[in-house]
Amino acid sequence: MPSLNCSPESSGATCEAGSFLTQFMTGSLMNIFLIGYRGTGKSTVAERLSAKTQMPWIDADESIETLAGSSIKEIFSEQGESVFRDLETTVLENLQQRDGWILALGGGVIVRNQNRRILSQTSPVFWLTAQVGTIQSRLSADPNTDQRRPDLTAAGGVEEINEMLERREPLYRQCADHIVPTDNRTSDAIADQIVELLSQEPHAGNPLD
Asked: Cα Rg for the chain, rounded, in angstroms?
């Protein structure tokens, strides 16, 4: 499997980690992981967090599509979910080796034990949450939903969201260092909360000094 290369086009950021972490952590770098179900705002929040902290960010699903040369929906339909999960683990392992990045991970990254082990060794992990109605509304309004996102159950829609959240919420909770609700909040407000939580991490100084 080829190694993951820095892609400013997909990440929306430069390939150099910003000065934020050298100020934020005392002599060490770290990554910030965003997890949560599709439609909870991980990529949008990652972009705003990047602007506030000068850390580069990357969307793991976009990295998978670049690696595979296909959309996630095409990978699911043509090669199956197991192939997609293999690619997802490869990308996560590559991303874990970086320092000073904001990483927006796919909604199902926590399904695999191996991925959960990686996340358990990584801090901090932020779980972005939203109510079912909020998720459905966001997905319906997003043109990428039909083009890129596969159905995860035969039911689809609200029934699928409920079913998948019932399965996945215990796994998100297992991996999360912090839980961040996103209902009725702007991406700026959510990013500000994450910055505040980061400032409370062990060995952290003021992240915006």
From this structure: 16
Cα(180)–Cα(48) distance, rounded to whole angstroms? 15
- Considering the domain boundaries, does residue 43 fall inside one? yes
Q: What does pLDDT average to over the chain? A: 83
- CB count within 10 Å of CB 197 equals 17
Instruction: Kindly report, residue by residue over 122-165, the tens digit of the pLDDT.
Output: 779 999 999 999 999 999 888 776 666 666 775 678 999 999 99
Q: Is 178 exposed, middle or buried (0-12, 13-18, 19+ CB in 10 A)?
A: middle
Phi, psi torsion values for 184, nearest 5 degrees? 55, 35
Answer whether residue 139 is part of any domain.
Answer: yes
Structurally, the chain folds into a number of domains equal to 1
Measured in degrees and rounded to the nearest 5, phi and psi for residue 204 equal: -85, 145
CATH number reported for the structural domain that contains residue 128 in this entry: 3.40.50.300
192: in domain: yes
CA 70, 74, 79, 81: dihedral to nearest 10 degrees? 110
Q: Which domain holds residue 101?
A: 25-158+167-199
